[in-house]
């Protein structure tokens, strides 16, 4: 009699990702892999390895720089921190501290910084709620309205990509950039600007959900949501809004940076070259020298090789 149905094992295995501390590498993970190999020989599981990806998480050190431990008396009580700052702030702080594989030292000051950021998000949302929560506009969106939408849709794209890579600190950083951009946009005045801001804040609640779900739900409710953001899934972005219209190009001569130009994103090599050659420092570096070749890397750089 089989201990379990191999059909079910084929459905569930291999596990997408295994996250564990460094001690797991020589304890649980070893047994986990050993039993999987043995069950593969028996024909019970379909793969040699039980997981597709292993992530060894870092260690949280106490305020004194030593590994949190009852032995050292440097353990921070989660309930106390949550009572003071709220669960959203604590989650944001831990995930923003660095890559998951990296150790970090606990800091009450940095915790307070995350609390201030979430207050900025709340202030932004409540400041625009009356004028923007129910605002609609058929388009087109131009000027400030377009820039607001660009900031929000780029945020959705960047945060989603960062989460897929488990770069949670980067994802939160992208969210902060978006919040700054929405503040910089100022007070929406036209119907298009109000609709764009309302859309941007609704998208912001969705990308904040994995990190600050309580705050996200509270804001989303004020912007018309009838269900928790957790149930809504990840938002989509408009591909046309995440493409930069203007890109920076590094201009090099023999591999040495001589300047930077900004040019239309769809510009070809000839246009980029002409713009680069019009730069004063580049012209000076090229003067009197024979051009051997031009190395062009689309959307990144152009390098003049001279002799």
Q: Top keywords for this entry?
A:
3 domains; two-stranded parallel sheet; 4-stranded mixed beta sheet; Ubiquitin-like (UB roll); alpha/beta; Isoleucyl-tRNA Synthetase, Domain 1; 307 residues; single chain; 13% strand
- Inertia-based shape: globular
Would you state the CATH class of the largest domain?
Mainly Alpha
Counted by DSSP, the helix tally is 11
**Rg from Cα:** 26 Å
- Protein structure class: alpha/beta
State the end-to-end CA separation.
78 Å
Number of strands: 8
CATH architecture of the largest domain: Orthogonal Bundle
* Whole-number count of domains: 3
Classify the beta-strand content into a percent band.
Answer: 5-15%
Can you tell me the CATH topology of the largest domain? Isoleucyl-tRNA Synthetase, Domain 1
Looking at the chains present, what oligomeric state does this protein adopt? single chain
**What is the helical fraction, as a range of percent?**
40-55%
Describe the biggest sheet?
Answer: 4 strands, mixed
Tell me the series of helices and strands, N- to C-terminal: HEHEEHHEHHHHHEEHHEE
Mean pLDDT: 92
How does this structure look, described?
The chain folds into three domains: 6-56, no CATH class; 95-241, Isoleucyl-tRNA Synthetase, Domain 1 (Orthogonal Bundle); 246-306, Ubiquitin-like (UB roll). 48% of the residues lie in helices and 13% in strands. The chain has helices spanning 6-12, 28-41, 78-85, 87-96, 108-132, 143-164, 168-184, 191-208, 213-222, 269-277, 280-286; strands spanning 18-20, 54-56, 60-61, 104-105, 246-253, 256-264, 291-297, 301-306. The strands form three sheets. Strands 6-5-8-7 form a four-stranded mixed β-sheet, covered by helices on one side. The chain has a two-stranded parallel ribbon with strand order 1-2.
């Amino acid at each position: 009699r089989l201990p379990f149905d191999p059909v079910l094992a084929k459905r569930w295995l291999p596990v997408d990702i295994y996250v564990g501390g460094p001690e797991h590498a020589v304890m649980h993970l070893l047994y986990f892999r050993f039993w999987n190999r043995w069950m593969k020989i028996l024909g019970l599981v379909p793969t040699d390895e039980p997981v597709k990806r292993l992530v060894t998480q870092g260690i949280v050190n106490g305020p004194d720089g030593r590994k949190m431990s009852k032995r050292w008396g440097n353990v921070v009580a989660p309930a106390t921190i949550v009572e003071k700052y709220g669960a959203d702030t604590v989650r944001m702080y831990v995930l923003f501290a660095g890559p998951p594989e990296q150790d970090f030292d606990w800091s009450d000051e940095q915790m307070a910084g995350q609390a201030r950021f979430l207050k900025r998000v709340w202030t932004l949302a409540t400041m625009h709620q009356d004028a923007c929560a129910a605002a609609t506009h058929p388009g087109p969106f131009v000027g400030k309205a377009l820039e607001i939408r660009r900031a929000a849709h780029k945020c959705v794209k960047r945060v989603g990509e960062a989460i897929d890579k488990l770069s949670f600190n980067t994802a939160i950083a992208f969210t902060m950039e978006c919040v700054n951009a929405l503040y910089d946009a100022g007070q929406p005045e036209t119907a298009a600007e109000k609709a764009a801001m309302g859309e941007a804040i609704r998208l912001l609640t969705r990308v904040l959900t994995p990190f600050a779900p309580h705050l996200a739900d509270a804001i989303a409710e004020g912007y018309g949501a009838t269900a928790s953001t957790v149930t809504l899934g990840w938002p989509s972005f408009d591909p046309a809004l995440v493409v930069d219209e203007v890109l920076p190009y590094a201009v090099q001569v023999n591999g040495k940076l001589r300047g930077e130009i900004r040019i239309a994103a769809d510009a070809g090599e000839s246009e980029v070259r002409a713009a680069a050659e019009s730069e004063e420092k580049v012209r000076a570096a090229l003067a009197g020298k024979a051009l051997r070749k031009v190395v062009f890397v689309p959307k990144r750089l152009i390098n003049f090789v001279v002799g």
